[in-house]
Structure formats: C-alpha cells, structure tokens
UniProtKB/TrEMBL annotation:
This is Transcriptional regulator. One of its GO terms (biological process) is negative regulation of DNA-templated transcription. GO terms for molecular function: DNA binding. InterPro entries: BlaI_family, WH-like_DNA-bd_sf, WH_DNA-bd_sf. Pfam families: Penicillinase_R. Keywords: DNA-binding, Transcription, Transcription regulation. It comes from Raineyella fluvialis. Belongs to the BlaI transcriptional regulatory family.
Length: 120
C-alpha cells in the first residue's frame, strides 16, 4: 500500500487483528515483540494515521484509543483504484498487465467476481 510507510502498515496490521480500540501502549506492546520502538514513535505514527484518516481515535480519560477507519480490503481496493490514473487506454493497459501477473487462482476469482457483477 503505497500511501503507508512500513511502520504505518505494521501499526495498521496490529489494529486490524482486533475488533476493539487500542491505546498507544497496547499497540507498542504488540510491535515491540519483534523490535525496539519508542512510545513516542508509535504515538507519532498513530497521530499521522489519524490525520490521514486511516484510523479513528477516541479520548478515554487521558489516553487516546485507536481503531482502523476501514478494513484492510477496503484500503487495498481504494489504493488500487487510486493507482488507475491516466487515459482510458492507459488504464486498460495497466489492468491488462495486472491481470497477466495474477496467479491462476486469483485470476479465476477475479473472473468469477466480474461475472457476478455483470449479471446483476
């Protein structure tokens, strides 16, 4: 997802794994299982994600609690759509190239989904 940096994506992955809002400290605890990070670093990343409207936050006492603003699938679809810029011919070329790079299972799923969409 080009709109997110590596650490931003890791923070989002932590938030997507749960259905509840998480504090900075809880996100930090999940992230520091694999690496050292400062509390302020995670706080800054969550603040940036809030400003990008990728997470929502609510104040509970003195602590902010964060949750994803959208699902992983919705974010990915939005990013894919945003990448389709240019003329209709350029978009068609890009979509053809994308389809050519799909593995057979994903290609079959895409054909199935598009078929269902056309038959509506």
């Amino acid at each position: 997802m080009p709109n997110l940096g590596d650490l931003e994506l890791q923070v989002m992955e932590v938030l997507w794994r749960t259905d509840r809002a998480m504090s900075v400290r809880e996100v930090l605890a999940e992230l520091t299982r694999d690496r050292d990070l400062a509390y302020t670093t995670v706080m800054t990343v969550l603040d940036r994600l809030s400003k990008k409207e990728r997470v929502t936050r609510e104040l509970d006492g003195r602590a902010w609690y964060y949750r994803p603003a959208e699902s992983r699938a919705t974010l990915m679809a939005t990013e894919m759509q945003a990448a389709l810029v240019g003329s209709p011919e350029q978009r068609r070329e890009a979509l053809k190239e994308f389809a050519d790079q799909l593995d057979p299972e994903d290609a079959a799923l895409l054909v199935e989904l598009l078929g269902a969409r056309v038959s509506r």
